[in-house]
Design brief:
By secondary structure, the chain is of the alpha/beta class. 41% of the residues lie in helices and 14% in strands. The protein is built from 14 helices and twelve strands. A hairpin with an 8-residue loop joins β11 (339-340) and β12 (349-353).
C-alpha cells in the first residue's frame, strides 16, 4: 500500500465551501438563472459601485503589465483616510488572505491559535494549514465571543499561545462586541500573543455602535486590524482586503505575502470604492431596511433569530439537527440560495444575507410556503 502524499495536518483539512453559485443551482434544478435569488454569501445586493466600474475599465488598458506589488496608490488613499503611515498597511487577496498571513507569520506546529466557537470558518483552516492547535472557546448564550473565557484560554496555553482571532461583527452569528469589552481584552492579552480583530462587516455598524479601532492599532503593537472590500464596498468578485498593524507585524506579513497578490483591477476599483461615500451610505440604509423586513417576517412566522450587526441574519428553522439542510433543499428547489451552517455546529439554523427588497420578499414567500406545508 502506497504512503499518502502530503502532510497529515494538510490531509485533515476540510476545504472551505462558499455559497453555491447561481449557475450551479440553475443546472442542478433546471431553473432559469435570471429568476434565482442568491442570499448566501453576504454580498452587496447593490453590486459594484459605478465609480469602481469606471476606474476598473480605465485600468484595463494596461493589463499587459504586472500590478503595483506594493499598491502605492491604494495604500496612500487608505493611509490618508485612516490616519496611519502607508507602511502600516498590508494588502490582501480578500481579507481572508490577511487572516491566513497572520497565522503563517506567527504560528507553527505545536503552537495554539484561539478563536470562538461559531466564528468564521477560515480561522480553523488557517490554524490547520500551519499545523497549529486550534483552541475553540465556548460562546456566550447568544453565540458571540466570550472574551473573558478567551483570555483564560490564552493564560492556560502559556507560551504556546501565539494568535487569537476576534470578529466584530461575527460571521455567521452577527453578534457584536462593545468597544469597552474589546479594549479591556486587548489590554490584558500578553504582548507576545497577536490579536487579529476581523472587521469584515464593520461598515454595517450603526453610528451608535461604531468605535475607533485604529486607535487600538496605534496603542497595541501586537494587534492586526483586518478589513474587506467584499461586503459594503461591493467588490467581492475582485478579492481585495487589507490589514493595519504597526511595522513590526506588517513587515512579517509582507515577507510572506505573495508577490502581486492584489491585481491591477482590484486596486483601481478599491481606490474608487473607498472614496464613494454615497454608495456606502446607500448600502447601509438598504441593509437597515432589509434587516427589519426579514426579522419582521421571522417574528410573524414564530422563528427564533439572532440580533445581527452585519448584512445577514441567522434564523432557526427547526428543532431537529436535519432542519437546516431540509429547509435549505426546499428553498433551492424554489430558486432561493441561502447558507446552511451545519459546518459551524448550527444544523438547525440558516444564514440569510440581506438582499434587495424584492429578493427578501421572494425568500420570505418561499419560506412561508415551505413551513406551511411541513
Amino acid at each position: 500500500m502506497s504512503t499518502p502524499l502530503g502532510l497529515k495536518h494538510i490531509q485533515a483539512i476540510a476545504p472551505y465551501v462558499g455559497g453555491r453559485p447561481i449557475s450551479e443551482v440553475a443546472r442542478e434544478y433546471g431553473l432559469d438563472e435570471s429568476k434565482i435569488v442568491k442570499l448566501a454569501s453576504n454580498e452587496n445586493p447593490l453590486g459594484m459601485p459605478k465609480s469602481a466600474q469606471e476606474a476598473m475599465l480605465r485600468a484595463a488598458s494596461d493589463l499587459g503589465r504586472y500590478p503595483d506589488s506594493n499598491g502605492f496608490e491604494l495604500k496612500k488613499v487608505l493611509s490618508d483616510r485612516l490616519g496611519v503611515p502607508a507602511d502600516w498597511i498590508t494588502l490582501g487577496n480578500g481579507s481572508n488572505d490577511i487572516l491566513e498571513l497572520a497565522a503563517r507569520a506567527v504560528a507553527q506546529a505545536g503552537d495554539e491559535i484561539i478563536f470562538s466557537k461559531h466564528a468564521f470558518a477560515v480561522y480553523p483552516l488557517a490554524t490547520q494549514v500551519v499545523g497549529a492547535v486550534a483552541v475553540e472557546v465556548a460562546p456566550t448564550p447568544q453565540f458571540g465571543h466570550d472574551l473573558p473565557v478567551m483570555l483564560e484560554a490564552i493564560k492556560q496555553a502559556g507560551n504556546k499561545a501565539k494568535l487569537v482571532f476576534v470578529a466584530n461583527p461575527n460571521n455567521p452569528t452577527g453578534s457584536y462586541l462593545e468597544p469597552k469589552e474589546i479594549e479591556a481584552f486587548l489590554s490584558q492579552v500578553p504582548s507576545n500573543v497577536v490579536v487579529v480583530l476581523d472587521e469584515a462587516y464593520n461598515e454595517y455598524l450603526t453610528p451608535e455602535q461604531r468605535y475607533d479601532a485604529i486607535a487600538w492599532v496605534k496603542r497595541y503593537p501586537n494587534m492586526i486590524l483586518s478589513r474587506s472590500f467584499s461586503k459594503a464596498y461591493g467588490l467581492a468578485g475582485l478579492r481585495i482586503g487589507y490589514g493595519v498593524a504597526q511595522p513590526g507585524l506588517t513587515d512579517l506579513l509582507n515577507r510572506i505575502r505573495q508577490p502581486f497578490n492584489v491585481n491591477s483591477l482590484a486596486q483601481a476599483a478599491a481606490i474608487a470604492a473607498f472614496q464613494d461615500d454615497a454608495f456606502l451610505q446607500a448600502g447601509y440604509e438598504l441593509n437597515q431596511a432589509g434587516y427589519i423586513q426579514l426579522t419582521d417576517a421571522f417574528k410573524e412566522l414564530g422563528l427564533r433569530f439572532l440580533p445581527s450587526s452585519g448584512n445577514f441574519v441567522l434564523v432557526k428553522v427547526g428543532d431537529d439537527s436535519g432542519a437546516g439542510a431540509r429547509i435549505n433543499l426546499e428553498l433551492l428547489k424554489r430558486g432561493i440560495i441561502v447558507r446552511p451552517v451545519g459546518n459551524y455546529g448550527l444544523p438547525e439554523w440558516l444564514r440569510i444575507s440581506i438582499g434587495l427588497p424584492e429578493e427578501n420578499d421572494a425568500f420570505i414567500h418561499a419560506l412561508r410556503e415551505i413551513l406551511k406545508s411541513a
